[in-house]
Every structure is written in structure tokens, then in C-alpha cells.
Design goal:
This protein is of the alpha/beta class and 145 residues long. It is built from 3 helices and 8 strands.
């Protein structure tokens, strides 16, 4: 039996990082629970104090196919390289110069939203198609693949 997967990010600014990943993946911020029209209404009803309203956030695939990404505030900053990272499939079916140009365009788009480009890995046939290594606004590495 397959299980649903949620990917959780420890971070300093859950709302900010959720907004970045929504843009990066074409996801949307998860709506408020129940019949609440906004998260502010829901958090008011739950008695969550203002200083804790950015303790968590989540984004979801609007088509329901991809995993939910959950962002939780933690006190410590990121300290070392990720052991697990996301590969954002930004150039499916493309090869060579066309693939790398598509990855570069996506890197520029994400940089405008706070990402940082870390390195470029050229195509190395037959197995290496080429990719870019990026970091999100809080330094979490991911690849444009």
C-alpha cells in the first residue's frame, strides 16, 4: 500500500518560504480549514497569538498530484548542506543546448523570487543531461533538472 508523503522544511520564515516554493512549483498556499474565509479568521478562532502566526505554512499542488510541502519555524539557522534535496523538473524532454537554455531561464525566474544560483553542471552524455544547483531564500539546496 503506497503512502502519501509530505515534505517538511525547517525554516525561519514559513510564510516567505512557502510563497517561494509555491512560485517555484506552480503550487498554491493551502487554504484555511473548515468554513473559514481566511487564515486570519481561522487563527483568531483558534486563539493563536499574533507572534505565532508565522510558525507554520503549507503549499499544495492545485491538481492534487504532488506532495504537500509543510514549512515550520525553528530557532536555529541552516548549518550544513542538505542530505536530501528536491529536483525541480524544469526541462522535461529537452536535451543539450535547448535543455540548458530552459534551465537557465528558470534559474533567472526563481532568482527574481529570492533563489540563489550555486553551480552549473554541463551535459555529460550518455547519463548526465546537465542541471543547475540552486538554493531557496533560506539556503536549502535544490536542482533544476
Amino acid at each position: 500500500m503506497a503512502r502519501d508523503v509530505q515534505i517538511t522544511f525547517d525554516c525561519a520564515d514559513p510564510a516567505g518560504l512557502a510563497a517561494f516554493w509555491a512560485v517555484a512549483l506552480g503550487y498554491q498556499l493551502q487554504g484555511p480549514p473548515g468554513d473559514f474565509e481566511s487564515w486570519e479568521q481561522a487563527l483568531d478562532a483558534m486563539g493563536v497569538p499574533p507572534q505565532n502566526r508565522n510558525d507554520a505554512s503549507a503549499v499544495v499542488d492545485p491538481d492534487g498530484a504532488g506532495p504537500r510541502l509543510f514549512f515550520q519555524r525553528v530557532p536555529e539557522p541552516k548549518q550544513v548542506k542538505n542530505r536530501v534535496h528536491l529536483d525541480v523538473r524544469a526541462a522535461p524532454g529537452l536535451t543539450g543546448d535547448e535543455r540548458m537554455a530552459a534551465l537557465e531561464a528558470e534559474a533567472e525566474r526563481l532568482a527574481a523570487h529570492g533563489a540563489t544560483r550555486l553551480s552549473r553542471h554541463e551535459p555529460a552524455p550518455p547519463l548526465g543531461a546537465g542541471h543547475l544547483v540552486m538554493a531557496d531564500p533560506e539556503g536549502n539546496e535544490f536542482c533544476l533538472d
